Amino acid sequence: MNYLAHAYLSFNQPPILAGNLFSDFVKGKQVNQYPEEVQKGILLHRAIDSFTDEHAATREAKNIFKPHYRLYSAAFIDVSYDHFLANDWQQFTDDSLSEFSQQVYDSLDKYLDLCPEPFKRMFPYMKQQNWLYNYRNRSGIEKSFAGVVHRAAYLTDSQTAFKLFEDNYHKLQQYYADFFPALHQFAYHRLQNM
């Protein structure tokens, strides 16, 4: 999952949110350098990623991007899932997504001193460009795909990924619908038992 889902699956707990959102910048045992509640967020993020990667719907969904993007197909699925979450009326209305996004940015501001440097450098762009809210829009997804390509070592083209997303929109939406309720339940129970 990408930033919106990780934020949403932090269940309104600020230290969990902080760890969950900057977890990708924490390698291995570096997790032990953080306060216990932030550690839980980092570990929750890792558990969410494992669950997502192993779920049958995600494995199927990756096949849409795999011929062109191989290992990076998972990153495009993560962004796609955030788009469908942002447009999932059972989770968000337009106003509640906007409100939620602002709450996340405000909460993260209080944890910036703890954040790894790469996240600190990225966060102002996330906030200024309102990434969390803009997952709702196809133009936001197009920019996010370009961001995946920009950060990838061997990729140069994001337009093919966006075309695949557009051409397979309803199929991807169904994969999300088949997957997300199980992820929500998994994340909630995992957090309760940490």
Short description:
By secondary structure, the protein is mostly helical. Helices cover 73% and strands 0% of the residues.
Keywords:
single chain, about 190 residues, mainly alpha, globular, hydrolase, ACP phosphodiesterase, ACP_PD, [acyl-carrier-protein] phosphodiesterase activity
Description of the molecule:
- By secondary structure, this protein is mainly α.
- It has one domain.
- It has eleven helices and no strands.
- α3 runs antiparallel to α11, α5 runs antiparallel to α9 and α5 packs across α11.
- The radius of gyration is 16 Å and the shape is globular.
> Structural class, judged by helices and strands?
mainly alpha
Q: State the separation between the terminal residues, measured CA to CA.
A: 20 Å
Largest sheet: none
Low-confidence stretches: none
Oligomeric description of these chains: single chain
Rg from Cα: 16 Å
| Beta strand % | under 5%
List the helices and strands and how they pair.
Elements: H1 3-8, H2 14-22, H3 36-54, H4 56-69, H5 73-86, H6 94-109, H7 117-128, H8 131-134, H9 138-151, H10 159-167, H11 169-192
